Amino acid sequence: MNKFKGRVESLREMMRSRGWDVVVLTGNDPHASEYSAPRWHQVAWVTGYTGEGDLVVTEDHAGLWTDTRYFIQAEKQLQGTGVSLHKTRVQDQVLIPEWLSGQFADYDEVVVAVDGLGISATTVIEIINAIGKDRTAIANVPDLLSLLWADRPSYPQTPVITLGAETVGWSRRQKIDWLRKWLDEKGFDAILLTALDEIAWMLNVRGQDVDYNPVVMSYLLVTADTIQWFVRKGPIPEGDNETEDSFLELLADRVNIQDYSDIGMALASMVDDDYIRKLFVDPSSLNYDLYGILKENTKQDNVVTGKSPVALRKAVKNEVEITGMKEAHLHDGVAMERFLYWLETMLEAGESINEYDCSLKLHDFRSEIEGFRGESFETISAYGPNAALPHYATPEYGSAELYPRGLYLVDSGGQFLFGTTDITRTIPLGPCTPLEKEDYTLVLKGHIALSKAVFPKGTAGCQLDVLAREPLWRSKRNFGHGTGHGVGFYLNVHEGPQDIRQNFNSQALLPGMITSDEPGIYREGRHGVRHENLILCKDAGENDFGRWLCFEPLTLCHFDTSVLVRNLLEESEIRWLNEYNERVYDTLSPYLPSDVATWLRQKTLPI
Amino acid sequence: MNKFKGRVESLREMMRSRGWDVVVLTGNDPHASEYSAPRWHQVAWVTGYTGEGDLVVTEDHAGLWTDTRYFIQAEKQLQGTGVSLHKTRVQDQVLIPEWLSGQFADYDEVVVAVDGLGISATTVIEIINAIGKDRTAIANVPDLLSLLWADRPSYPQTPVITLGAETVGWSRRQKIDWLRKWLDEKGFDAILLTALDEIAWMLNVRGQDVDYNPVVMSYLLVTADTIQWFVRKGPIPEGDNETEDSFLELLADRVNIQDYSDIGMALASMVDDDYIRKLFVDPSSLNYDLYGILKENTKQDNVVTGKSPVALRKAVKNEVEITGMKEAHLHDGVAMERFLYWLETMLEAGESINEYDCSLKLHDFRSEIEGFRGESFETISAYGPNAALPHYATPEYGSAELYPRGLYLVDSGGQFLFGTTDITRTIPLGPCTPLEKEDYTLVLKGHIALSKAVFPKGTAGCQLDVLAREPLWRSKRNFGHGTGHGVGFYLNVHEGPQDIRQNFNSQALLPGMITSDEPGIYREGRHGVRHENLILCKDAGENDFGRWLCFEPLTLCHFDTSVLVRNLLEESEIRWLNEYNERVYDTLSPYLPSDVATWLRQKTLPI
User: Is position A154 within any domain?
Assistant: First the structure.
């Protein structure tokens, strides 16, 4: 039997013996992080599918819910497992709560088993509301899967570093003061932060507890006179001087360090003592287990839920952070151009290289940058048909060989002590088909249209998204993912609250926000194109019509012009492209080896 | 004392004597119609302000809430009345419910007086929710203002006509069958329709009870075996054979005609008898008085509220309606071109004409069309600075004289037995300033961009709106109204559920929907530009990326090319414009007098 089919069956045996009607599993850690440490790769362990997604198992059905980005990958990886793919972000999608409500319409009571640590309160509440409060019984089993998963990885424990105000602009004390002012204004006694990137931002700490996301597994509780950080770091391993120094610095700033697992008890007793009468918490990153503890131990009106104020404050970068991000993009651009030069040189020399070699080489160039702390996400190095998977995972063994023809796509980014990068370039390796050229050109038109947008203050990303799509739509082409996501400062490469996508999100774009601009086209079995820069939202002045905003591209790496279909481009687009490439050359060339600089001069000549 | 100030004071006296804390008045009729008969021009009677808006009067404040379209008009008309303008559809708007909740934050109980007939249930519920259920006492006083308004106009009573399936595609019986199928599918016993245009559509009847909107003041109650039309038409005035014939036709189709004022009693008794156990009603067009009757006389769960299914069904025009709309636009285009020719000829001859003369002349040309039933809204005939008011009301006496320079804007439309039109053209009367030319060109770019959009099935209007704005935004110009509204078939010139504007409205655009495309620029004290066509949403085929939709302009009237700033236009825009103008000439010229046709040939030469 297929290994994963067997695991689904084991789960069903457990369900039967315990009287559960359905198990809902996510890949979430206890903080609803987008990426999680291996301990929480629960969906992957059960099904073999390694992308993002949620799993639902009933007696007669096992289903994986995931979005457009992962359809091809999921179909491939789920073969033989008996797990069906349920598509989200498509017309007529049926999400898990609605699906469950349909499946169990005739039941008097539905027992829904969840790992309360590995699922957000919001998700469980949506399920309860869909099935009906009176009919739903949640069986909360923390670490549910540990019962089957013998060699399940343990909690991560990595060194903690701190960042100074010279790097992040706002000192820890300033941030705490700001948050306490917010508490005071809103009439709250305390705020519990559960989102790992918000905690890292608040305390100016970074770790490596989650791959690519430089966060520390922890909770942060701030009141008018205490700061309590519940963190899984004790005892500090011998030789981890970084963490020890960081903890001393935090203590000096009156941050009280407590054990991660004490959060529930501490909260309960503080509420019980009337020390906290009004607690604010954002349910979207609160796990269901902790939510249960709060509900059990608090009186009505003790807990106020809402959007964390830290998310928005963190998304609006200050001048110091912007300077850091620009420096990160300068060095990152140098690494990218050196990589692209190497790639072209290798192919011209007839050397045999594959996708994985490329991701290693790009890693090497980034590693030479002082302050480099690793990739900001797993590099997508995809040649030909593989690039049609927007989230292709380049395999270490057996990745595709590159040939001097067609399109190669590389989507990668770095974490630096002074910023985070995320860039995609699609590279013609030699002759391309007319369709490849057209797609390359149309996606670039979309990228440019968004990048040079000017818009009134108050405009939300979803009101701009169509700009990046319209040149594609006009040729009846489209892409199934968002156009832009927020990017953290040496933090998560995906952050909110803003984004640029079709979904209605009323968060206005604000000066200081950094977002990606990454339209694409994907043709299964043929090729994929994506062009991505990070763009900084900036003030563009005021006039009779109000205040205006615009974008500045932060990413510095040329766009290849050799395969552009010239007559698909408007004059204004060509002007933008020539100016951008010229700026890339002017800015990067002083930092490039002379052979690379000479090559880049040719690559960036105006068209 | 200012007459209107006096009326506000009279209202306050009534408030004091009755113990009301606040009176909320709207211009709504009992069906929450956008336009209402003079009887419900309550806000205008109290304040002198004649645009759309809602009035709130407290002991120490009188405020009028209206949106961007009416700011200039409201500021002018409210002078000396003591009524303050509260702006809506702006950043940081404070709507009435929120404002009331702030004003009365310290009150234990707030008595809110409303005319339950002249305010929708939705509006009152929003107010109750904002202030708090426990603290709000609604004083429902039907026809509240009649206590002060001595010569208040009575209910309208105009002839009723019917339309056959050869004109509207679906017979009355087909529509009733469709609605009964919907009731059956949803498990409802009855639907109460309260929106006048939905009732007119369902019964294939038209009246003139509301200026410009060819509707009949009535309620329609449909069950599995009865159709009851509550209409204020008895006794039919002598000589009104139209209404008599219509009623006979309706009776033959088993439509039971009852008196308008019996709706409440009839509903109450049918629910009481258990004849109706589940009644569906759309609260957005339900007045608060009838809502109260329903609440008093029904058990819990007897009444289900939601969006009426008729609105969407009505918005998607069938082939017969589309054919009619095209015919209406052909004749309307002929009238427009004859008018524009007349205008140019008059100015060239040095004749003295003013804005009001123009609206009369345009009316005359439309009147010559067989089947013309009047304007679809009050013609906006605005010269120079007057055109900066998007909803300028052209005065009968003292309207502005036209001179052979600058821009003249005319926004008008007709009701025909076979369709409804709505068109705006901005006409250069002679030399224009560079700014006028630029604005004219940029607005046309926006108009064209939306008109030639291609988009995936499922796209909502708010996801397209930016296309019409982006060319303006790029030059840091904007307009404060929506880009497009739905248009009925020989029905209201504004209809939902779709629209094309910045506000999030998830209703997808569907093939058969007709919407306006009317971006603009308004410069107070200088000039205004708006270019408006009606556009039909159409299928544009299917490919690997899904199903595609596009628009077809229905409006047929040339765009003047003489003041275009050529270098602001892309090649693709010039192509669109030349093709459109050519189509206008080809289609209209056979119907034009030869001098007008010759003139139009010159006006439509390619640029």
Answer: no
